[in-house]
Design brief:
disordered N terminus
């Protein structure tokens, strides 16, 4: 793409952003603290706006060299769909960037606060310059703004959201209630995401790679044994189990383990005495298994066909 085409792509995007008359939008229509770029769409005007930003003009929308922008090291989002990125790149090449990236001044360079997907797509499209909104932000504020923007767009993976909530809580010593207020989500929503961090690394990776869903992950939290949680992930992959099937399976397994741990229920005296008499008569082990409501089952053991026939003969006697 030629330099002229790059500038045109950028200009079209800014036209859409700042109005039909290019950079000449009425300042009264702009948000408080935002300065509009000069009306002439040429490199000298762009450089002038860029020079003002260098001098510390915060709240300005300016066009800056794309190579001067560094990505946010605390970017909550860690995965980018390549096909969607290519589609966005094609759109930017055709129509330009509609929404500016948000950056902060970082020495002689700029650090991205939000808009990494647009930045990546712009590089793919071959743009030399991109429109940015310059604002002041410290490290914690960068994390918070990037997180809030991405969550509001619902573009983050469930594990990315969970890790970002935790990072936000750590950075500000926020409680879960305070985190929920900052990101505009219900407290229960924040809690459910942060609970995912209790899962084993293998389960977290499966969720991050979309091998299991958020519903699956939440169901696995009911199983306290990490090894069994990992085994359930294997079964979900192999059998395509639904969330409901996993919930039911875990409940059944836990009930079975609880019953086995509790051991056989105590037998009433009459039952103990009668089972002893029957065992003596049959000359083999007899086990009585009581159930609720006075019900139960009787197990008579034998070690060979000959012994079984002997027991049957004695029962018929």
């Amino acid at each position: 793409m030629s330099g002229k085409n790059k500038r045109n792509a950028l200009g079209r995007g800014l036209d859409a952003l700042l109005g039909d008359s290019g950079f000449g939008m009425n300042p009264s229509e702009m948000p408080s603290g935002v300065n509009v770029l000069p009306q002439k769409d040429d490199r000298q005007s762009l450089r002038h706006a860029y020079a003002e930003a260098e001098q510390g003009v915060i709240g300005a929308i300016a066009a800056i060299d794309i190579d001067l922008i560094d990505v946010n090291p605390q970017q909550p989002r860690t995965q980018f769909d390549e096909q969607a990125l290519q589609e966005l790149s094609d759109s930017i090449r055709e129509h330009g960037i509609i929404q500016p990236l948000t950056v902060r001044k970082h020495g002689k360079r700029y650090q991205l606060i939000s808009g990494e997907r647009r930045l990546r797509a712009s590089k793919k499209a071959g743009l030399a310059e991109v429109p940015v909104y310059i604002r002041m932000a410290n490290e914690n504020e960068m994390l918070e703004m990037g997180l809030v923007e991405n969550i509001q767009r619902e573009e983050l993976n469930a594990m990315d959201i969970a890790l970002s909530y935790q990072a936000l809580a750590d950075a500000y010593a926020y409680s879960q209630d305070e985190v929920s207020k900052r990101v505009g989500k219900d407290r229960s929503t924040v809690t459910n995401y942060m609970r995912l961090l209790k899962l084993p690394a293998e389960v977290q990776l499966a969720l991050k790679n979309n091998d299991i869903s958020m519903g699956h992950a939440r169901a696995l939290l009911a199983e306290e044994n990490p090894e069994k949680q990992v085994d359930w992930v294997r079964r979900i992959r192999e059998k395509g189990l639904s969330v409901r099937a996993v919930e039911q399976g875990i409940r059944q397994e836990k009930a079975g383990r609880k019953a086995a741990k509790a051991g056989p229920a105590a037998l009433p005296d009459w039952c103990v005495e009668d089972s002893r008499k029957l065992s003596e008569k049959l000359e083999t082990a007899v086990e009585v298994r009581p159930q609720k409501g006075g019900k139960g089952s009787l197990q008579i053991r034998f070690s060979s066909e000959k012994e079984l026939r002997k027991i049957l003969d004695r029962l018929n006697a």
